Amino acid sequence: MDNLKTQVYNNYDSNELMYSLYDELGQPEILRDMFFASDKPYKYKNILLYPVTMDLCMIFYILADCLILRKNTTGDIEAIKRTYLDYLIYLAQCGNYQYLKCLEKLLLMVLHKNEFALDENGNPILGENNFAVRSVEIVGRNGKPYIYILKDKIHLPFKGVSDLDYDIIDSNDFDIIRGKICEQNNIELVDEKIHPDKLQKIEEWEELQVKKNKDRICSLEEQKAILKAIKGWDTEQIDKTTIRSFYTEIERYGMLIDYEIANILRPNMDKKDQQKIISWLGKVKKQTKLEKITCDYDKFNDKFEPNKTNKQ
């Protein structure tokens, strides 16, 4: 029996084993880290979402503006009541095609698809009216928005939009896919269900951080130089690294330096400060933007009225 199991596992490549396990267990969220830690594409239904690599980093972040619009702060009732995907189509209907075009190009990037479907000779496949068949189409049908993603294997001759040839994504699916793309590539989505006043405060905090850190955060070129110095990698190796892995490497290296400095200073610290030293190998809980602008009441008192507690 053990030999049979070994043969079965040997017949799988790592990707097939990972995805078969993921499907068999009902796509549990607990296995999410399995994809991220291995820089593997994230599977949603029959769709694979590939993490973006550093050679496409700047292009991706330009396109990603289409994923982080805050429609609920526009004051436009028509925008607020729509789903996010429907909102992008609504903007296009109002003459702003920019975000819909960005979404199409971004999806092609993370799906690893060409703009047009190609035959085995590399020529565009022609559909109805001899138009080249697009790999991704964002359309409104029967008053609802959909994304049609062409499958890798399609039926020829191609006879137009068909459930047989497309994975069809609706608004609910897109909300999940949008979140996964952002999570894969180090973009934080702010929950738009929180109060508009808090959303306004987050926007003010973001603007303040941009001004505050304008001359403190090194450029992408300098960040790549840091990783070259740490790892001894060349430009080509860094460009093949995913965005998520790249910034995780940089973050952990910063933690290592802080940890080493803290240990040098430890003998001169009081016991309370020594207990605050965090190991660079420890788990880091990343604060959301809302958490960053929210101050605990007791901490506020300690900071601005440090003697109040002592007087009591």
Can you walk me through this structure?
- Strand 1 and strand 2 (47-49) form a beta hairpin.
- With 312 residues, this protein is mainly alpha-helical.
- The chain has helices at residues 2-10, 14-24, 32-37, 57-63, 77-80, 84-93, 98-111, 171-184, 196-212, 220-231, 235-239, 243-265, 271-274, 289-293, 297-304, 308-311, and strands at 42-44, 47-49, 136-141, 144-150, 166-169.
- The strands form 2 sheets. It has a 3-stranded antiparallel sheet.
- It has 2 domains: 51-182, no CATH class; 196-311, no CATH class.
Note the main attributes of this structure.
disordered N terminus, two-stranded antiparallel sheet, 3-stranded antiparallel sheet, single chain, 5 strands, 7% strand, 2 domains, globular
